[in-house]
Amino acid sequence: MKQYNVGIIGATGMVGQRFATLLENHPWFNVKVLAASPRSAGQTYEQAAGKRWKMAVPMPAAMKDMVLMDATNDIEKIAGMVDFCFCAVDMKKDEIKALEEAYAKAECPIVSNNSAHRFTPDVPMVVPEINPEHIEIIKAQRERLGTKRGFIAVKSNCSIQSYVPALHPLRKFGLKNVLACTYQAISGAGKNFETWPEMVDNLIPFIGGEEEKSEQEPLKVWGEIKGNEIVKATAPNITTQCLRVPVSDGHTAAVFVTFENKPSKEEILKLWADFKGVPQELQLPSAPKQFIHYFEEDNRPQAKLDRNLEGGMAVSTGRLREDSQYDYKFVCLSHNTLRGAAGGGVLLAELLAAKGYFD
Ligand SMILES: NC(=O)c1ccc[n+]([C@@H]2O[C@H](COP(=O)([O-])OP(=O)(O)OC[C@H]3O[C@@H](n4cnc5c(N)ncnc54)[C@H](OP(=O)(O)O)[C@@H]3O)[C@@H](O)[C@H]2O)c1
């Protein structure tokens, strides 16, 4: 496979650090640029991020002495050094939109973890096992932006990465109503227990903007390309409640679902067991071999025990049973900073690379 030079925009942040560790020994992608705000630019990665390093594994040795570039003021220079960039920055939504478009217009494709462009109609929001065909909208986006190579592709919010994969293979039975309560880890807010001690022995029943994302993003992921845009699906009807819980990593969802045509429990289990997507067919380096794992034990999946399944890229399910108000209920879990953030971004980039979008 061809090798690609890549940059990480927002390298000093929580998601940026995760990108750095995931890309350390990547077989296709070589990190050539690390960039962050003007506050960090000019410092080495170790100087800028060493004291706020939040990963369980050390900072990649080859990146420690790399000098951070200025993500907002060095765009042309960065675009000239890499084949594409990952982006995960904490800025205002309008600023992120403008920043990502500026990179795309400088002919540097952007694979983004930010939410700013998720509902831009010609920006694909991709879970590679579910809607890989949405990357075909990039042709229309390039026409709008007037670019030859440059484009923006985004991954979805971490909250939906647990229940949308489990619901996806069941769509053939007609998903009617979905209720999902999510129990979200503190790393989703860029925090750990040292930086957010108030979360020890606590639960906060509100995560700003999360319920809207959790209800709307699945409809774009299940949408269809029509002309120059992705048109959202109109079903199922989704309602959510998103809670912050005292867990370091791993978002859990308790899901209730009704169907147009109710399947049997065995049919659901078989569809989960057999579910393979394009990443598995193409054997992309970060793809889990088995995307959806089902646990028979009543007390699984558990965040602490099961979030790292298949490098944190698989989705765990359990407790599938009939319900008195909905047809079925079940529980699912995914690692929010791996599958739900940087790992999902790397897998999307692998899909784009395999399909020639960085050439
Ligand atoms: N944490 C998660 O699990 C998660 C999951 C999915 C998506 N996301 C999204 O990913 C993005 C980053 O999240 P995070 O948790 O990694 O945030 P974070 O830890 O606060 O890191 C923010 C990064 O943005 C950079 N930055 C801030 N202002 C900038 C500017 N004006 N110009 C250029 N760079 C700037 C920071 O650089 P300095 O260090 O120089 O300030 C830092 O590298 C957010 O949009 C978030 O919503 C996060």
From TrEMBL:
Keywords on record: NADP, Oxidoreductase
Q: Name one GO biological process term.
A: threonine biosynthetic process
User: Which Pfam families does this chain map to?
Assistant: Semialdhyde_dh, Semialdhyde_dhC
MF terms (GO), sorted A to Z? aspartate-semialdehyde dehydrogenase activity; NAD binding; NADP binding; protein dimerization activity
Q: Which residues form the Semialdehyde dehydrogenase NAD-binding domain?
A: 5-138
Matches recorded under InterPro entries? ASADH-related, Asp_semi-ald_DH_pep-lack, NAD(P)-bd_dom_sf, Semialdehyde_DH_NAD-bd, Semialdhyde_DH_dimer_dom
Identify the catalytic residues. C158 (acyl-thioester intermediate), H251 (proton acceptor)
Which top-rank group of organisms is this from? Bacteria
Q: Which SUPFAM superfamilies match?
A: Glyceraldehyde-3-phosphate dehydrogenase-like, C-terminal domain (SSF55347), NAD(P)-binding Rossmann-fold domains (SSF51735)
Q: Which family does it belong to?
A: Belongs to the aspartate-semialdehyde dehydrogenase family.
Looking up PANTHER family in the UniProt record yields: ASPARTATE-SEMIALDEHYDE DEHYDROGENASE
UniProt name for this protein: Aspartate-semialdehyde dehydrogenase
Organism equals Ruminococcus flavefaciens
